[in-house]
Specification:
This protein has 177 residues and is mainly alpha-helical. It folds into two domains: 4-83, no CATH class; 95-168. 48% of the residues lie in helices and 11% in strands. The protein is built from seven helices and three strands, in the order αβαββααααα. The protein has helices spanning 4-12, 25-28, 67-76, 95-110, 118-138, 140-153, 158-168; strands at 18-22, 39-46, 52-58. A hairpin with a 5-residue loop joins strand 2 and strand 3 (52-58). The longest helix is centred in the last third of the chain and has 21 residues, at 118-138.
């Protein structure tokens, strides 16, 4: 169902099939999974039936506000539950899969040590090297992808792993910390 605001917008833009709008942080705070602090909430509304799809973008990202781009995005976001960050495994034989496996082993090995212990420092140096490789493969988003994949593989250790990677990758360019 179209809101009054949406109806007015579509009245002003009669040739448009989709509306893309930024969501104020106060509104996005009530989403089932609010955006991370360095991400912004967005909503795409479809004119034909008033259906909406919520999603987030990193603070620096931009999206063209054209039906040609919004239509396929809307189709991919089949329901609000899919608005959560989705990650899929890389090709098993690829470089990204090798980096992910290496990071997983390094994270597990480094956990028992205090952050300033010599083995922990050495493990973090290797994690940093893997982070540089990931940056070369796909940029900042690849680092975020790896954090999501590694957190999904060990949900109970997700915060610990993210904290270790944050220290190891400090200074590397990341889309979100």
């Amino acid at each position: 169902m179209l809101t009054t605001d949406d109806r007015l917008w579509f009245d002003d833009h009669p040739n448009r099939a989709y509306r893309n709008r930024a969501v104020p942080r106060a509104e996005a705070a009530f989403w089932r999974k609010p955006p991370a602090p360095n991400r912004y909430g967005w909503i795409i509304t479809r004119r034909s039936d008033g259906a909406i799809r919520r999603y987030t973008l990193p603070a620096y990202a931009a999206l063209d506000d054209t039906d040609a781009e919004l239509g396929p995005i809307f189709a991919q976001l089949s329901d609000a539950a899919r608005m959560e960050r989705q990650t899929f495994p890389p090709s098993p034989g690829g470089a990204l899969a090798r980096i992910e496996r290496s990071l997983s082993s390094l994270l597990t090995a480094s956990e028992p040590y205090e952050p300033d212990a010599e083995p922990a420092v050495a493990y973090r140096e290797e994690m940093r090297a893997r982070g540089r490789e990931a940056l070369a493969i796909g940029g900042r988003e690849t680092l975020d992808y790896l954090v999501d994949r590694l957190a999904g593989g060990a949900p109970g250790r997700a915060q610990v792993h993210a904290a270790i990677l944050d220290v190891a990758w400090r200074g590397l360019t990341r889309a979100r910390l």
